[in-house]
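Let's inspect one such protein example.
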Amino acid sequence: MNSPADGARPYTLNAAGIPLSGLLALPAGGEVRSTILAIHGRGMRAAYWNSLIPLATGLGHAVLALDRPGYGDSAAFLTDGQSLAGQAETLHAALKEHTATHPIGAGVLLLGHSDGGKVALHTAATDGAVPLLGLDASGVGYHYDPQALHFPSTLGGGASKLNWGPLNLYPRGTFQASRTLLSPTPARESAETVRWPGQYEELAPRVRIPVRLTFAEHEAWWHLDDSTLTAMTSQLTAAPRVILDHLAAAGHNISLGHAATAYHLRALAFLEDCLRT
């Protein structure tokens, strides 16, 4: 599963001196309408997004799925990783480098999962040289559910229930194949986890692009009661529009489950709306 999806190739960017590995997929035989920067979650790798790639490129969008700073090729340079804000700065540098050699179309959609969604929010809230079209994040909330307070290790298997939910939500062989995606979570990233609610409160009012937030039916990391979600969305005061979506028959790792196609098509529909407005 850590091998490239059909139509994607291994790709490395020099992001202000930091090598970021990942995958790049381009539309076949046509112009690039836009570019999706796909940002994986905690303890994963860029190939988490394999099932998105053919859908996106088939609609004319390029997909740039990078191993976040502290993962993949950059792990040897960033032995403790980077803060979430530092990762956002590095991703801005990576986008600038990418646009020097590749067309990005009308701009970039930030597509983030879990901790990658946090980095996407940091990226959206900070200025960069590349136009951003919108932000689509799944599996990232505002306040953690009490059962997630100890933040068990994804790599060590302690977070299995939180990350997956019921096993029948995933195709046969998913769990064995996903072992190739797993990677140690950098120390600096883990240390920031408890500070997320305060970080979100600082970031949310600075996001000035459309936002879509998706939560799986069996999401277990976050408080998902109406009052908490309302408090979350109400802080996105500068976003032109905010969409809150719930996905049935899905667990936290949406893009690895049976519901992946439904989620990816909704994200691509959101991108189409961003391109029209």
